[in-house]
Automatic annotation (TrEMBL):
It holds the Pfam family adh_short_C2. Keywords: Methyltransferase, Oxidoreductase, S-adenosyl-L-methionine, Transferase. This is G6480 protein. Belongs to the short-chain dehydrogenases/reductases (SDR) family. Belongs to the class I-like SAM-binding methyltransferase superfamily. Cation-dependent O-methyltransferase family.
Length: 509
């Protein structure tokens, strides 16, 4: 019996260190905070009256659990996370580091000492503005958060175990969790005492057992209990069952964010090597598409494709001069053969010259129309043929605010006229192909802060333009990214021939 017991002991006690060893360690500062939390004289602090409760080093959830919560936050694209029971803030810090710049962790904590202990660490880690510590009993804090209308993508329950049921009810009943969110519950096994008490009376294990049973019976949620550390349970909202229309369930059971996903779609972007095109390539790739970056400049096309591949987006670079029909066809053929299809085409390549109408040379007019108008049409034609055959496609052309007004004071008649023509091409193709599964739309950005406006002629005008824009700033390429994903996705399935203006209000004055 003894060797068996020893064997079981080694297996059980070796698990956590091994999991730590084979998982990515926390950031150095998080690791330092964990160590400081573990070696802190908690008994003395309590004896001195600096903590209300006798805190223990075991309260610290540690590296692995911090990474677990941070990983779930990333998988869920979370922006707001609630932690009920912060202790010294090791998980708080790990999650804050994983959130985007405007993300927030709200941490409920009853001990003032913990707020003061953790604050310098949050500051040193540069995440202090992402962490909002709410002092007081969590039950009251949850009421306050509900009254403030706060919503969380993820909640981590890790405070007093006897309070779990009440916290859970508040989270669910006040809709503190968004529909696609999750509640993560720590200590759901209580060292096994939830399923095997060994004859020992344990109030906390009883409370967790009751909690586990309550949640399991709650028809609003799905529950996954994991034997990880002291037991971690993941609770997610169950899709509504019964007779419901598509407004309630989402079209074909896709919620609105799922309808924006581009998984298994193939996109090409002309002029993808820089500026707006490069941002479009990233945006479509982030939304799930494989991306062909097309540019006349092989180097920039390759650089963007490498950036995308580095982010885990399947991408190729294609060099093409789209002013020639044969090149446009080769571009489409290359994308289809190398990426396995073509579902989305963003015709974005364009040029601009600045000259007064009376001084505009014929060559400039021809070059502008050759690329911005004829080249764009030739692209649409080659892409359209492929998409018509498959009965599905999204074509998005880059027009310009110049299609809607005459930008000034710069003079650019050829550009303005070429972009107005892009709108008419878009409307015509949108109408011609509407009944065959294709949508054709265009986007008209206002003045975008790219290399194109850094020319000697345009650069000095930036200040003047800003006075013409109600929002008081130029567009950044990232301002255009969500719109391109929307236009490329099934979320825009009833929109065709449309010119979507993103101008910061420039067209309003
Ligand atoms: C297990 S520790 C939290 C560990 C932390 N989540 C982590 O990942 O390291 C529990 C914390 O909950 C706090 N706490 C206990 N009862 C509370 C209550 N009613 N309201 C708010 N916080 C509470 C304790 O002071 C303690 O710091």
């Amino acid at each position: 019996m003894r060797p068996l017991v020893e064997h079981a002991y080694k297996l059980a006690s070796g698990l956590d260190p091994y999991l730590d060893a084979i998982s990515t360690p926390p950031s150095q500062i998080c690791q330092d905070l964990i160590e400081a939390s573990l070696r802190h004289p908690w008994a003395d602090e309590h004896k001195q009256g600096r903590t209300q409760f006798l805190q223990k080093r075991e309260c610290c959830a540690g590296a692995l659990e911090g990474r677990f919560i941070a990983t779930l936050a990333k998988l869920n694209n979370a922006k707001t996370v609630l932690e009920v029971g912060m202790f010294t803030g090791t998980t708080t810090l790990a999650v804050a580091q994983a959130l985007p710049d405007d993300g927030k962790v709200v941490a409920c904590e009853i001990e003032e000492f913990m707020r003061d202990f953790s604050q310098p660490w949050f500051e040193r880690a540069g995440v202090a503005d992402k962490v909002d510590v709410r002092l007081g009993p969590a039950s009251e804090t949850l009421d306050t958060l509900a009254a403030e209308g706060k919503r969380f993508d993820l909640a981590f329950l890790d405070a007093d175990k006897t309070g779990y049921l009440s916290y859970y009810k508040k989270l669910m009943d006040h809709n503190l969790i968004v529909p696609s969110g999750a509640i993560i519950v720590d200590n759901s096994l209580m060292k096994g005492r939830t399923y095997y008490s060994g004859g020992v009376k344990d109030e906390m294990a009883d409370a967790i057992r009751d909690f586990n049973e309550y949640v399991r019976q709650d028809s609003r949620v799905d529950v996954l209990a994991l034997p990880f550390r002291d037991g971690v349970t993941i609770i997610t909202r169950r899709p509504q069952s019964g007779e419901q229309d598509e407004v309630a369930t989402g079209a074909a059971h896709n919620n609105v964010l799922q309808r924006m996903k581009l998984n298994n779609k193939v996109a090409l972007i002309t002029g993808g090597g820089q500026g707006i095109g490069r941002a479009f390539a990233h945006a479509l790739g982030e939304a799930g598409a494989a991306v062909a970056v097309v540019d006349i400049n092989a180097k920039t096309a390759q650089a963007t494709a490498e950036e995308l591949n580095g982010k885990g987006i399947r991408s190729i670079a294609v060099t093409a001069d789209i002013t020639k029909a044969k090149e446009c066809q080769r571009m489409v053929d290359t994308v289809v053969s190398e990426l396995g299809g073509l579902d989305i085409a963003v015709n974005n390549a364009g040029i601009n010259f600045n000259n007064a109408a009376e001084d505009t040379p014929e060559s400039e007019w021809d070059m502008t129309f050759n690329l911005n108008t004829k080249g764009l049409f030739l692209c649409c034609q080659a892409e359209g043929k492929h998409m018509l055959q498959q009965g599905y496609g999204r074509i998005i052309n880059t027009a310009s605010m110049a299609s809607l007004l005459v930008p000034h004071p710069q003079k650019q008649i050829a550009y303005n006229a070429s972009k107005a023509a892009v709108v008419k091409i878009t409307e015509t193709l949108g109408a011609e192909w509407a009944d065959r599964g294709l949508t054709v739309n265009c986007m008209s950005p206002g003045i975008v802060n790219t290399a194109l406006i850094q020319s000697d002629a345009l650069k000095p005008l930036a200040k003047e333009w800003i006075t013409q824009i109600p929002m008081g700033r130029l567009a950044e390429v990232t301002d255009l990214e969500a719109a391109i994903v929307f236009m490329a996705s099934d979320a825009s399935s009833f929109m065709t021939g449309h010119n979507l203006a993103l101008t910061g209000g420039h067209t309003l004055w």
